[in-house]
C-alpha cells in the first residue's frame, strides 16, 4: 500500500432549488480548480429565506482531493 | 453601520415528501408569526418510519429574524 | 400525513429536591404558557451548592410544542 | 404507561440520486432485518464525487426500533 | 494483561417514574440479550409530556459488554 | 428554596465597534422586551468584512431571564 | 463590581442509589478540600452494571469554587 | 451505481502494547463475527494506568461493514 | 438567484492588544491574498501568557470569500 | 528534545469592563499560584446582566503551565 | 458498594518518539504527584513540526485518580 | 510583539504501518508545498480494514504554518 496524501478544502454551494443541487454546485466548482476530487462531507446546511423568491440553500462541504506526489 | 438585533427561533417542520419540503413548511409557518425572517440553519434531521406510509421527515431549524427597533 | 410544525422553547427548572423535580417544574411552567407541549430534551444539568441548604438543581430543557395552524 | 425499551442501530445508505433516497435505502434495509423500526436520525451526510458518474450520497443514520418483551 | 474486546449497544429505556428507573429498565433488557454487560454511559435524556399522565422519561444509553473469545 | 423557572432566548447583536458592544446591543434589546434578564452565554462570534467600512461583529447570545409565577 | 476569580475542579462521585446521591457525594467531598464551593455542572453520567448488586452511578462534575484574593 | 447499505458496530479493543495494537485487536474480533468489514473510525482513546504493569490502552472504534442484499 | 460558490480559509491572527485586533489582523491578511472576502467565524480564542510582556491573543477564524466563476 | 509535561487548570475571570480584562484577571490570578504559566484557551464566555450596573463578563479559561521535573 | 470519589487532572505529555510515549510521560508525571492514579482519556493529540528535528507529539490527557477519604 | 498571521490547512496522511507514520507522511507532504509549517492537530483517526493486507491508517490533521508578510 503506497502512502497517499489527501487535502480537504471547505466550500459553500448555493442553490434556490435543493440541498443536492447546492452540493453539486460546490463539488463542480471544486473540480474546476482541484484535480482528483474524491469525496465530500456536509458540515452545515443553512439558507436565506426571501419573502418573494423563496429559499436559497447554502451547504458547507469539506471536499477531499488526492495530492499528487 | 447601524446596530441591528436579530433573534433565533427553533422550529421543526415535517413532511412526507422531502427534507426541503419540511424546511419550507417550517420557514413558511415562521413567516406567518414572525416578521423579517432572514435565514435558517438546520440543527437536526430526523424522521418517523411508518410501515405502510413510508418516511416522514422532521427537520429542526433555527430561524433568524430581524427585530424592529 | 399532514404537515405539522413544532417549536422548541428553552427553559430552566430549579429544585432543591431532585433532577426529576426540576424537569417537572420546568415542564409545568411551560404548559401554563404554551399549548400542546409534547416532549422535552435535557440540555444541561447544573446546580448551586449552598453550604447549609444543600444542592439546588438547575436543569435546562428544550420543550417541544405543536403549533396550531 | 408500560416500560418500553428501544434499540438504535447505525446504518449507512447510499444512492446516486438524492439524500432522501439514501435514507430510504437504509431504512428499507433495516426493516428487512429488524422488526418495529420506528424512527431515524441523520448522523452525517457524505458522498463520493465520481468524475463521470457524478455524486453518490452516503447518509449515516441511527435507526430506532422497539424491542419485544 | 490479556487482550479483551468489548462491544457497545445503544438502547433507550423508558419510565414514568424516574431517570434512574429508565436506566434500570434499559440495562435489565440488555442483560436479557447480552452476556457480560459491564457498564453504561448516558447519551441523552429526553421525555414525553402527557397532559394528564405526566412525564415519561426516555434515556438513551450506550451499554458496554465483554465479547467472548 | 422556591422553585424558580427561567427561559432562554437566542439573540444576535451587531456592532462595527467591538464584541462587547455587540453583546451590549443584544442584551439591551432583550431587556426592552423581556423582564428580569439575568445572564447571557456567547454561542458564536461571527462578522462581516466590508472592504471599506471594516468589520461588523455579529455575536449570538443565549439570554436567560426569570419567568414570573 | 469587584473582580472575582473562580476555579473549576473535575470530580466523579459514585453511588449505588441515585444520580442525585452521586452528585451529592462528589460535592460533599469537594467541600472538604475546597473552600467556597459555589456551583457544579454535570459533564457525564456513566455507571457499572453488576449482575447481582445492580447499578452503580458514576457522575462526573465540574465543581466551581471562588478563589480567595 | 448500485445502492449498497453498510452498518456500523461500536467495539473497544484493549492492549498493553500500543494504540495500533488495540485497534487491530478490535478489528480482528469484528472480522470474526461480521463479514465484509471495510473501515473503522476511532471514537475515543482511553486506558488504565496500573502501578506495576503500566498502561493498558482501550480504544473505542466504529467498525463499518457492508450488509449483504 | 445565481448559484454562487464560496470557500472558507482558516487563519490565526495574533495581537498583544485585544481579541478584536487579532481578528482584524487575520482578516486584513486574508484580504491581501483572497479577493471577495465576505465574512468570518471565530473558531477558538487562545493566547500566550508572557511573564513580562503580558498576554498575546491568538484568534483562529474561518474566513469566507466568494469564488469567481 | 526533552520530555516536558504541562498541566491545565480551569479558571473563571470576571470583569465589568471587557472580555480581555476578565481574561487578564484570570491569568494574573493563576500566575500568583502556579509557576510557568504559558498559555490559555477560552472555553466559554458568559456574563451577568445587571439592570443598573450593566454587564459583568465571566470568561472560563484553561490555563496551561509547565510542571517542574 | 462504598461511595468512592475520583478527581480528574488535565495534563499534557510530550515526546519526540510516539503518541504512546507522550501518554506514558504524562501518566508517569501524574503518578509522582497524585496517588491512586487509575485511568486516563486522550483529549487532543497535537504536535510541533520542526524542520530538522522532526515531530514532537503533545498529547493532552485527563488523568483520573481516586481521592482518599 | 509583532502581529504574526498563521493559516491552517487540512490534510489526510495514510500509512499501513502506524498512526505516527500517517501523521509524518501528511506533515512531510505539507512541508513540500507550504513554508514555515509549525504545528498540527489530529482531527480524526480512521482507516481501512483489508482482509489480507491488514489495516491502513488515515489520519486527518490541521497543519498550521506561518504566513509571510
- Gyration radius of chain A, rounded: 14 Å
Mean pLDDT of chain A: 95
Shape of chain A: elongated
Elements of chain A, N to C (H/E): EHEE
Written account of the structure:
- The structure is a homododecamer of 69-residue chains.
- Chain A has one helix at residues 19-33, and strands spanning 5-15, 37-50, 54-66.
- Chain A has a domain at 18-59.
- Helix content of chain A is 22%, strand content 55%.
- In chain A, strand 2 and strand 3 (54-66) form a beta hairpin.
- Chain A is of the alpha+beta class and 69 residues long.
- A three-stranded antiparallel β-sheet of chain A has the order 1-3-2.
- Chain A is elongated and about 55 Å long.
- The longest helix of chain A is centred in the middle third of the chain and has 15 residues, at 19-33.
In short:
The structure is a homododecamer of 69-residue chains. Chain A is an alpha+beta fold and 69 residues long. Helix content of chain A is 22%, strand content 55%.
